[in-house]
Amino acid sequence: MLRRELEYFFAALRFFTRLPVPAWVGHGSIALDHSARYFPAVGILVGALAALVYLLASSFWPTTLAVLAAMASALYLTGAFHEDGWSDMVDGFGGGWEKAQILNIMKDSRIGSFGAIALVMLLLARFCALIEIDALLIPAALIAGHSLSRFAATTLLHGLDYVRDEGKAKPLATRIGSGELAFAGGTALLPLLLLPALPAALGCLLAALATVWLARLYRRRIGGYTGDCLGATQQLAEVAFYCGLLCDFS
Q: 162 — phi, psi (to 5°)?
């Protein structure tokens, strides 16, 4: 059972990152079908490595450059996989009116004006939010943000249908059960213990609102989700979480 669960985890790690996995891990779709419960765990690993880069960089650079280094490391580790989904989703929903048109635009590998602008704005928002967080809390924020946002994307696998006949996310198209979703949620909540309770709660609230808004948009416009929608949800939920950490009502 342990070997099987490790295979599921490594399947998720290989699908979403550039990190190496053991040679014994297979390439079949079965492991990937069951890997969704480990998406937040992959986020913890990516966030921890980004946090490590931040800590190393902050020992000789100011916070702004250290945050940029952390962001760049996360982009490299994931191959900008989720950012690509964000830009494709915005291109599709911004330039298309009907379902077929939206799906065709999202499938196009070229980036349009909507996607380019949205990507720049997203990265800028992430950078601006991170540099405003207390420097001592940035490592914890990175770990929690990467983990929680991947759980946000995982909820779509539970509540929506996959709308393509084929695609990068087709192996993930099986709806996950409540038990798998609960396991993913428990994993995503663990890094929040590293943060002050109220800011963490506000961060979760904004991430949840962003996820619900996108889920309703996906259901209304295309009847479900695609792989690009999963990536877009992760991206917006991550930025929303960082913004929630910064909420100040005093």
A: -80, 130
Phi first, then psi, for residue 196 (nearest 5°) are -55, 145
- The more confidently predicted of residues 108 and 46 is 46
Q: What is the mean pLDDT of residues 60-84?
A: 96
Contacts for 164 with CB less than 8 Å, ≥ 6 apart = 103, 170, 226, 227
Axis crossing angle, helix 39-58 with helix 2-16, rounded to the nearest 10 = 60
Residues of the chain above pLDDT 90, percent: 75
pTM of the model: 0.92
User: What is the secondary structure of 14-51 as a DSSP string?
Assistant: HHH-S----TT----HHHHHT-GGGHHHHHHHHHHHHH
Q: Helices 99-107 and 81-95 sit at what angle, rounded to 10 degrees?
A: 140
What is residue 174's predicted lDDT score, i.e. its pLDDT? 65
63 touches 135 (CB < 8 A): yes
Tell me what the mean pLDDT of segment 80-106 comes to: 93
* Whole-number CA gyration radius for the chain: 17
